[in-house]
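Task card 7
Instruction: Convert sequence to structure tokens.
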Amino acid sequence: RELCARPPTATVRMARAMAWSLLSNFLEARRELEAVDAAGLSPALRAAWSGLSRAVESGCAGELESQAGRRRENLAVIARDQPDLARRFETEPTDPRPYAWLVEGGGTLVIARLDGAGLTLLEEPAVDRGLRDTIAKAFRQDQNPYLFHGLGYGALLGAAVGLHPPLVNGMQIGFYVVEPSREIFLLHLLFADFAASCAKGNVRFFVGEGAFADLEAFLLADASLIPSVRTIGPAVPGLDEKMAAVHRRAVEHHDRARAEWTRYYEALDPDALLARIRGGTGERPRVLFLTSRFTTVLQYCTRDLARAFEALGWEASILIEGCAFGRYNARLYADSLARARPDLIFAIDHVRPELAKDLPGNVPFACWIQDKMPTLLDPAVVRRQTEWDLAWYAITPSWRDEFLAAGFAELPYLFMGVNEEIFSLPEAPTPRFRCQLAFVSHNAMPPEIPGRPGMREYLMDLFLAEDTGASDLAHYDDLARRVLERFGMAPSPDSIGRLVDYTVLQVSRFVTRTQPVRWAVEAGYDVHLYGNGWGAIPGLERFARGTVANGRELRDLYHSATVHLHVNHYMNLHQRLFECLAAGGFLLARSVVTDRDPNGLNDHLEIGREIVTFSGKVDFLTKLDFYLTHEEERRRVIEAGRARVLAEHTYTRRMETVVAGVVRRLERLREAGWPGARGVE
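Output:
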């Protein structure tokens, strides 16, 4: 400050240059030296000027290279989610003058602004315990924290992201960085490392004079975003009023949309609804699907169901969160209902009573059960369904009685299928997918059981020794009881239930999917493993091939590998199976106890003729070798299985069944005088 306040003589400028270089700000040091008339200096000062100039020029080169690299990396990260913003700043100048900066040992960035009054320090707010508590509190309340900082938000953002707890199913909390100053944002591009902070894609930047307006437009454009956000950092004048206005406008939008769909469904003629679904009016019926971005399997399944309904002449809409930090909320439901005005609402693994206040009660609601969800086994939820609610069942027959006991009146079987448009037969195999055995499935080591060292490994060894694919859940109750007793824990219904869930959902998946892969690897076969997690499993890392995109790329993989492994504990009727067969792939499936039960695998694909199963290591390796070396036999199974799938197991066929069931239910309601036909809550 003192040097900047002095008259800019040659000696003062050289002193300033030395100070700037000590702060690693060589650009500013060079500017000071360029203003010095070297010819007028004494020999001693000229020698000092020359030596300092060489050091500064060398420092400038390194500084510019470092800044340019960090700027490129930061813009590349931002471009992934905000390409327009990144392009906007790609051509901005990179010279950060008139700012000075100092990166201290702890990573703290101290910046000063140079103006007529000298240097003004703009120290970033400290990431202290109080700020960390504020961030943690926001996370506990599951709100979208909103970060505003004129300076230092690089460190604050990093701290917030570092404190971010893992949310269920990959859900994220959103961070909004609002920076009205272009210059300060440019400075952060040069010195803050955004890569780690933005890795999850849940950070959005709003920059320049219109930053607040851009934030408001962003929050109001996506109905899954919750505008009521929490401020982290120093107080911002007028911020609360601005955000209150955004929240008020979001509520007003919700109220208008809800009033719109409420008026529509209050006036809905049930006879017209039935006629439209039957297809006799010339007006296309409409279906609204509820799904989530946090379950890729159900998301892709919903995509396929929507296509199937469109093939049947329906209009299909999908309600889904707009981004990784979007949430299902009343505004999202209201917006979707007002826009789509569905004649049928369809959800996988959810029933209307979970959402009744946000949905009309006088249109049919179809639930397709594909997982053992707690709410679907809760009588307090299930028994609140009405005659306008229908359900189908897609998982192992051994669990069906539990769902019926929870209150489902009717639960016909409807198993997964295939999108025959996507998983059609390619013209030729894709060379990069060629291998003897491929397995497409996520896999991961089960997490440790907290406070019980060794229990995971003991349980895995016990499961491996006793599981044959023919065990029912009673066996796992007994297994859990023995494990608890072995580790000195009292077996109670709650502790047994938790350990059985852990065994079924974590241990079983890992062991049953990993075991045949190890058999094939040990036998020397060419194995490719696709999906998340394989690269972290000891001994299998070199066989991991990363993920493959669901759709045409996955179809090409199914068509190209010679044999595909299929392992799905307790039930083999899985979407993967039908997709592989439709694409002309050969499937070798691990047999399970339900395969030959009524409504088991053999009722849908004839075992041995249309699909091949194995039981145990010897059987697996024998059949793998046979079908790898007998192309004619393998081709015969492929063609028979594919023909059966395309004739009976497409999603178009499945949705024909759903539509027929909906029509029968509505006809029954009409005969009863349309009870609940004005059921708008």
